[in-house]
Design a protein that fits this description.
Length: 269
C-alpha cells in the first residue's frame, strides 16, 4: 500500500513538473501591452490574412496574429488553411504553390491575393507586434521553423512565434533560444479523433510537451481554458496565457480580467 502511494505521489509530481515553461523572457512584458487581431483586422470585403487586414490592424493600433506555410519553392505564404478551398474555392494545397503563383489566387472574391511573409514584414515594419503561427505539413516542421527565423533575422519589430506542433517549439528552443516561443493548444480529446493519435491528443490537451520545449507562453482556446493543466501551468508555474479566439466583447473582457493576452476577431475592442 505504501509503495502504491509513493508511486502515485511521484506520478503527480512528474505531471506537475511536465507543465513548466520559461517565465523570465524580457520581451513578454512588451507583448502583454497589446491586443491582437486574429489573422488581421478582417471584415466584409477585407479577407483574413490579407495585406488589407493587416493594414487595418496597424491603422487601428492593434497587433495581429498571422499564419505561415512553406511553399514549394521554399518561400513563406501567409495563409491559414492547408488548402485554398475555403478562401478561394480552389481545391489546391497551399504547399504546392510557388511564390509567383500566389498572385493568381484571390481571397473571398476580392482583389486581395495571398501575401508572402516578406510582404507582411515590409508592411508592418515594426509598427505593431506580430504573433506568427507556424503551420507545418507532412513533417516540414524543421524547414518551416528555420525559414521563418531566417526571414525574421534582420526584422527590427516586436514578434513572437507559436505552433500547435511541439516539434516547431522544440526547434526554436534548440536553435533560436532567444526568441519568444509559445505552445498552441486546445481540448483535442474529442475533436482530434480519427486524425491525431490518442496519446498525442492527451499530451497536447494537457500541455505535457512543456517539459520538452519550455515555451514562454501557452496559447489556449478560450472556452477550454479551465482545463486542470492550463490552470496549473498558469497558477503554479506562472506561465503567461494567450487566449484565442475571442469573438464577443464579453469574452474579451473576461479574458483580459483573467490576465490573458487577447486575440480577438469579429469586433473592434
Amino acid at each position: 500500500m505504501v509503495a502504491v502511494l509513493i508511486v502515485i505521489v511521484l506520478l503527480c509530481l512528474l505531471y506537475l513538473w511536465a507543465l513548466r515553461g520559461r517565465t523570465h523572457h524580457r520581451l513578454m512584458r512588451r507583448l502583454r501591452k497589446w491586443k491582437y487581431a486574429h489573422r488581421g483586422l478582417h471584415s466584409e470585403g477585407v479577407p483574413e490574412n490579407s495585406l488589407k487586414a493587416f493594414e487595418a490592424a496597424i491603422e487601428n493600433g492593434y497587433g495581429f496574429e498571422l499564419d505561415v506555410h512553406l511553399l514549394a519553392d521554399g518561400n513563406l505564404a501567409v495563409f491559414h488553411d492547408r488548402t485554398l478551398k475555403r478562401m478561394t474555392g480552389e481545391d489546391v494545397q497551399i504547399e504546392s504553390l510557388t511564390t509567383e503563383q500566389l498572385s493568381e489566387h484571390f481571397l473571398n472574391g476580392t482583389d486581395q491575393t495571398i501575401p508572402t511573409f516578406q510582404q507582411v514584414l515590409e508592411l508592418c515594419d515594426g509598427k505593431v507586434p506580430m504573433i506568427v503561427e507556424l503551420k507545418p505539413v507532412n513533417g516540414n516542421h524543421n524547414a518551416l521553423s528555420e525559414k521563418t527565423c531566417e526571414m525574421l533575422e534582420n526584422y527590427k519589430g516586436l514578434y513572437c512565434l507559436e505552433s500547435f506542433d511541439p516539434r516547431c517549439i522544440r526547434w526554436l528552443q534548440q536553435n533560436r533560444p532567444k526568441l519568444v516561443r509559445g505552445q498552441l493548444a486546445h481540448n483535442s480529446m474529442k475533436e482530434g479523433k480519427g486524425k491525431v493519435p490518442f496519446v498525442m491528443r492527451v499530451v497536447m490537451t494537457n500541455l505535457l510537451s512543456n517539459w520538452w520545449n519550455t515555451p514562454d507562453f501557452v496559447a489556449y482556446r478560450f472556452k477550454d481554458r479551465e482545463r486542470a493543466s492550463v490552470v496549473l501551468a498558469r497558477k503554479l508555474w506562472k506561465m503567461q496565457g494567450v487566449s484565442w479566439t475571442l469573438r464577443t466583447p464579453e469574452e474579451y473582457e473576461q479574458a483580459v480580467k483573467e490576465g490573458w493576452i487577447p486575440i480577438f476577431e469579429g469586433f473592434n475592442p
